[in-house]
Hydroxylamine reductase
Amino acid sequence: MDMKMFCYQCEQTLGGKACTKAGVCGKDADVAALQDLLIHNLKGLAFYGQKLIERGEKINPTIQTLMVDGVFSTLTNVNFDPERFFTYNTKAEAYKQELRALVGNIEGEVPSAALYQSPNRVDLMIEDGLKFGIMADPSMNEDIRSLRELLIYGLKGVSAYAHQAAALGKTNEEVNNFFFKALNETLKDDLTVDALFGLNMELGQENLKVMELLDSVHTGTYGHPVPTKVAVTKKKGPFIVISGHDLKDLQMLLEQTQGTGVNIYTHGEMIPAHGYPELKKYSNLVGNYGGAWQDQQKEFDNLPGCVLMTTNCIQKPRPSYEDRIYTTSVVGWPGIKHIEQVDGNKDFSAIIKHAIELGGYTEDEEEKNILVGFGHNTTLSHAGAIIEAVKSGAIKHFFLIGGCDGAKPGRNYFTEFAENTPQDTVILTLACGKYRFNKIDFGTVAGLPRLLDVGQCNDAFSAIKIAVALAEAFECDVNDLPLSLVLSWYEQKAVAILLTLLSLNIKNILLGPSLPAFVSPNVLQVLVDKFNIRPTTNAEADLQSILG
Ligand code: SF4
Ligand code: SF3
């Protein structure tokens, strides 16, 4: 097949099929090849790692980190820098050889990915990467390919959360080992649909574990989120906007900007940070700036302050702000300033100095607020009142409306859906999809705000905990609760969360705005038959069909 690249891992993929010349996200064919090579090298690494794990041996933590961060770097909108992929590939090759030596003699067949030796020049890496893409074997059964890629994309989602927990010093060995198991399985040439389906369900459970770990490390480090008003308006003075998911980066930045006069605004998925007692205590955490990730080019244009991108989702910086946007951790864009961690610390002095030089806003805007901080602890502290309200009929239904946001016009669906939910219903929301409606005043029901912000995408764990607690209180199955899930997807963390929900046998999920290109018709049919998963249609009709 004559194509420069093949990527269909996100919702934005060209024509709903695949990006084959350049990514709609801004990924060029060279970076796509370097990412394909990295996945190939990590599969080879996984082969030897899995042999050691099966012998009961432990994988060296540095290699675990490379595995997790390497997979994460290929997630949509994380890293676009060929040099960084050169480094990841070089390390993956070195660690592959290291584990290969530890494994020693192998009986039976060794897959070609394990025997492959990665070159040490970027142009040769790009050449090789072209051979190892998703379509490398055009004769592969499309359902097998679909489930194999579903597994790899799910793994990308898990890697984001494992990375985030590791930033706060916590890892889970079973979860880390699953990376080796899953990637090793993809090398087998006797893959069956059933085995791959089972692995995808296993991935859902591993993702649940890592989201639970992240919940415990977030709440353990920063306390349980509490209801908190967040200003969505500007304050006079120099500032830094911090985006992404990494609370540790935010905390270090807040610490280092204390007393400098630099205000900090959260952006995108960082907004739930305002609810954590150990983060909200910083007086220079002044508010939230802008909408979801896809609005950044417009919103950062000519910004009189700096931006720090901590995880996904970065878009091509415009010339008007490319000098004032910084990346850290796995995030990268060629030519953009990158802040490395040294001995567990990050030095933000350059970005702070830069923000002061830019001067910031010249006056205060009239303050407007929204409310965050309804994680499982706070929401379930109202469990008694919620249960009473359901029994008395004051609350008729719960909706979980959330997930990833994106640029497609069809995403107004989620705004319309939320706007049309009746007054006697509660909306739980999470992830950046909330920006479609989080500035609307939904009023209250049974003494509670109708819109409860549960947190980041990984706080899907909180939503699951709330649902399970309600099901226990009503002595029913989660599927029998008056609860409907209306989820938007864009990138691969949403894939991991969806697999978690399916692995918990949660049915009747509405998924939109379009279905993944990598899900083949047969695989979709299985998901429909087993879980009654449905594509979103139009907000009014879907709402009607739920509420009857
Ligand atoms: Fe296309 Fe999405 Fe892949 Fe980017 S990540 S190349 S937009 S499918
Ligand atoms: Fe949004 Fe990227 Fe997915 Fe954490 S920030 S949810 S799209």
